[in-house]
Each structure stands twice: as C-alpha cells, then as structure tokens.
C-alpha cells in the first residue's frame, strides 16, 4: 500500500489559465498507438500452435499492448491501482443507501490493508495508491489531505458540483498521481475509487455524454430500492436541468455534474495515455471518468482496457459509447478498482502466450487451414 501524496508539481498554486494550459499539453501529447507493432504481435500470435484467433480476447490484449508500447515484445514491469476518493454533496438528497461518513472510514481501511481492493491488488502483485481528492471530513495524519481539492463536491441538485478551476485541479492531481506511479516503474495502471453517492454524478455524466435516458444510466449503487431508486432518477434529472451542462465542453460537464475523484481518474487515464501506459477501467464510476477522457481526446480510448461488467448498468452504456466491451462477468458492484485488479493477471497471461507458447515452426505441429 502506498498513498497518493507525492511530488508537488505546483498544481495548488496554478491559476485557472495555467491549469487549462497544462491539461491541454497532456491532451495534445496523446498519440495513436503504433499500428506496425500491433500487426507484428498479431503475426507472432498467428504463428502459435492454435487455430487462428482462438485465444480471442487474450490476443486482442496482447495486440493492444504491442501498439501501446510500440514494440511487438511488450512487457509488464509494474502494476498499480490508483484509488481516488471524494465525497458528494448530493447525498443530502437521499441518493445513496450508505451514509457519507463511510467514505472516510473506508479510506482508512484501505490505508490499513483491510479493503477488498487490498486483497485483490495483493493477489495480483500490484501496488495500491490511495489519494484523497475530496473526502468531506478530516483524515489522519493530515498529510494525507495534501491533495484534497475541497471537502466534497457541492450538491448538484442545487448548483454546480465544483468550479471549473477545481475540476481542472482534480484532473491534474490525478495526472500527477499517474505520472508518479509511472516514474516509480509501473507501466500498467488501473482506476479505482471510493465515494458515497458517486454513482449519482456518474449516471448524470453518462446521460449527458451518451444521450441515453437517466433511467438507463442509473442503478441502485450501494443498494437503493424501489421508490428510493425512482427518487434518484428525479434528483439526476433535476441536476442536469438546473446545471444545463454543455456536452461539447467536457470540463463544463465534469465541473457541473461530476465529482472530484471522477475528474482525478480522468486525469490519470489521460496522463498514462500520454506516457504510452494503458489503464484498466473498473466499474461505472471509472467508466464515467473514461468518457470524460475520451471526450477530451478520443485517442485515449486506445489506451483503455476494460475489465468487468458492473451490476450498475450505466457502465455498459458508457463503455459501448466509447466502443469497448467488458471482459469479465462476475456480478460485481463494489468499486474501489476491484474488477480492474482482477484483470491484471489476464493481461499478464496474454503476454505470456506471446512469449512462451510454441510456434508451428519450432514445435513440429503441422499448419493447416484453421
Ligand atoms: O464500481 C461500480 O460499478 C460501483 C457500483 C455501485 C457502487 N459502487 C461503490 O459504492 C459507492 C457508490 O454507491 P452510491 O450508492 O453511494 O452511489 C462508491 O464508493 C463506489 O465505489 C461502485
Ligand atoms: C457502503 C460501502 C460502499 C463502498 N464503496 C466502495 N467500497 C465500499 C464498501 C462499503 C461497505
């Protein structure tokens, strides 16, 4: 375990204009993956003793990694889940089955190693980096709050979640966390989060960015039922109506109806893509962040690897809109990055196939029309 307070890139002291410029540098630094390396990887895989494309998604992942790392011989050197935490003013409206104080309590549990995400990152041999972007109450020691932008978002049913400047600061803080992880040797990242209420802004973002209905994007989160779920729909509709975000300006949408931890995950995805590092997505909140990243630069999509299909149905709509499919069907809806962590071994397996499986040429197995 690790925590996300890290090398200060002076994000705190930057003006809105400087933040916007810095974000634009990241966005414009994202290049398309290398087609030739991807093609060469597919040729390597086609030489293995198997019917063509019979390893399905494993082949897709190996090919994707080759394009991203710009070599037909990609390697995984270090893995980390970047867990971003933030609270949500909209919980006042009764949109979550859980009370707000749980966010801080869960964050402490991850720091002491007891969360589901601790178990699954340990299982995968990955690091966990926890960053407080906006928990609503103090956490200890105080250094852990060094990256906090504010004590939770404002209530989106009454006005914007945050200012544009706060959204930019959150995005760049996420980018900084990703950059530090990469500098410390990680070359595959995953997004994770905690934040009571965060399925509400996620559903709002998915509604606005994809054009689906609020009902389609919204699920029961931590466990809302019947009338409470209908009330959540009404709150999200109200939030979209009163904030009237401009879908052509992703930062406007993010700042008005998003979340601090959602912004940080989007920033991490973009920075990783700029540095030619893939990011594994988790559930609905990660997918909402991925939509923000995709709207800011569609090339970033090629650096995203999906993991599980969350029980929170808006995730599928977000992923479909981006053009990627979930790979694991486990009926999960915990968040934290737990589904993403389970994808690390799959990615490693894909590269092992490329490196260790015998070829028709060397094994004595005859080739044929298969
Ligand atoms: O990842 C998911 O798809 C997911 C689905 C439902 C709930 N969650 C987690 O539950 C919290 C949000 O649920 P809620 O009902 O408070 O909006 C937050 O801490 C998420 O990590 C996560
Ligand atoms: C309520 C609750 C919400 C969560 N979100 C992520 N992990 C969680 C664990 C609990 C217990």
Word description of this protein:
The chain has helices at residues 16-28, 35-46, 56-69, 102-111, 116-124, 164-183, 199-210, 214-217, 226-243, 250-257, 260-274, 284-296, 314-322, 338-356, 360-363; strands spanning 2-3, 79-86, 127-134, 188-194, 279-280, 304-305. It has 370 residues and is of the alpha/beta class. It has one domain (78-345): Rossmann fold (3-Layer(aba) Sandwich), CATH 3.40.50.10210. The chain has a six-stranded parallel sheet, with helices on both faces. Helix 1 crosses helix 6. The longest helix is centred in the middle third of the chain and has 20 residues, at 164-183. It is globular and about 70 Å long. Bound molecules: nicotinate mononucleotide (NCN) and 5,6-dimethylbenzimidazole. The site of nicotinate mononucleotide (NCN) has 23 residues, from strand 4, helix 7 and helix 12. Its EC number is 2.4.2.21. It comes from Sedimentibacter saalensis. One of its GO terms (molecular function) is nicotinate-nucleotide-dimethylbenzimidazole phosphoribosyltransferase activity. Keywords: Cobalamin biosynthesis, Glycosyltransferase, Transferase.
